[in-house]
Amino acid sequence: MTSTVYLTLGGLGDRNGIQQKELQREMPTSNQARVINRLRGGRLVALGSSNGLRRIKAVASETATIQPEAERLLTDDEKMLANYVPVYVMLPLGVITVDNVMENKEETERQLKELRRAAVDGVMVDVWWGIVESNCHEQYDWSAYRSLFQLIQRYDLKVQVIMSFHQCGGNVGDAIYIPIPKWVREIGESDPDIFYTNRMGIRNKEYLTIGVDNKPLFSGRTAIQIYSDYMKSFRENMADFLESGQIIEVEIGLGPAGELRYPSYPQNQGWVFPGIGEFQCYDKYLKAEFKEAASNAGHPEWELPDNAGEYNEKPEVTEFFRSNGAYDTERGKFFLTWYSNKLLSHGDQVLDEANKAFLGCKVKLAAKNLQVSGIHWWYKDDSHAAELTAGYYNLKDKDGYRPIARMLSRHYAILNFTCLEMRDSDQPAEAKSRPQRLVQQVLSGGWRENIKVAGENALPRYDRSAYNQVLLNARPNGVNRDGPPKLKMFGVTYLRLSAELLQPKNFKIFKIFVKNMHANQEYCADSEKYNGRIDLLERSKPAIPIQELLEATKPVEPFPFDEETDMSIGGFLADLIDNLIERIASTFN
Hints:
- By secondary structure, this protein is an alpha/beta fold.
- It is built from 17 helices and 14 strands.
- Helix 7 (223-237) runs parallel beside helix 10 (330-357) and helix 14 packs parallel to helix 15 (504-517).
């Protein structure tokens, strides 16, 4: 018997077929015939000898006319390009002023030139709700941001935009003050419960409480509708930048500092690191929702916690977070599940609206924590108190981040995590902090849910140690010189563009960092060569039942990370040489 088998290699849409022809005699023995295997244009042909040569010629002739030439071998540089991680730089918070003006255009242009010289891939821009829709509902002024995007376009830099629905001011690193829109604050004067509230009744005006997500309190609109309308207006007014591919990513602000969390540690209310923070669910809307949830669970007598301490306390001095404390009781577990699920639902709703707003655009959606916040202090404490007050129900036996990644997966969104630059050894022992393990846990959860993960540094750093840690997290198992690495982040955004970053010594180190993030390759404008194709955004998949989301809380050992990056930009000796050169230069100057 002689058989002809062909397999058309390719994607799911390609054809697989088998042809088989029976002959009247069996296949010749090895000393009478030979088997010839050929690969032509992706078609595998196996033939026996008896009149097989004619078949070989026929197939080869057909293949030569309809199949392309065999794919050429990749060069070493092309293989290394698969390890390339793009680098973006956050523009200053006030690049557009609170008065909706792009001031210091010349200085901004000079800085953009420097970034282009450093071969960065693009920039990140906060698009402030409090600026664009400032004075009257549904009246948007995008003119200053259009001018900014046009300026950025001159230097061939890609743009990540943040739909910033939060206040600027009151958090770490906030150098300016941009409140949420005036007309919203006026509604808050008559109904202060539209804002997050702690147990003492102190309001936080950084972001609307998720208790009003579906309440038509804003001239007939709900908070979710406000966010949706804003994003739709952005798409309509920035269509040219979206269609040209300049805007490649839209990050959706989901809470204070743009992060999917509660405002549990506000500096403007006296919080100081490493305080445990406070729960922020005491506005009348969330209180009513909790009471309803408790009654439905058969416990109408349960109230919100009143024993969880204050902003700057330690876990062990509170009844709620101490060893064997209330957090580990039936009532405590019910509250923490409700508290974290509310956050999960909020993120899901807003991202669903974002998906509809940008449907069909060639962009990636991202959530900062989506962005997830890097709350690394008290991570080594059994209670994980600071994470719990922020809304992340994360314990030794419960993963509080992977359910977020699973929720993101239905929206084709990226998980963006922070504190990539931090090492455990950087932190004071009394904080029981473990940022390296936290980053490892969160990134691994994203990868296990088959979504893209990206990240940023939490604080401005200019030292080699911080850059090396970012490089390690960007490629946890190093580069692969034969193609894509085992694990790789989708991108890294550096916080933030400033005069200090552009100082000669700092900028020299930063440029080496960018080069190493690029796997020692030249700047590549075509992201398909290292991150794959960005397709048109599809409609979100069906909602994932809450129980299915909560199945992801089962802890799984994170992927192993190397101890150090294999593309270090130097250490102590390099710093010593830099300092010596700087002293010599200053002497001559």
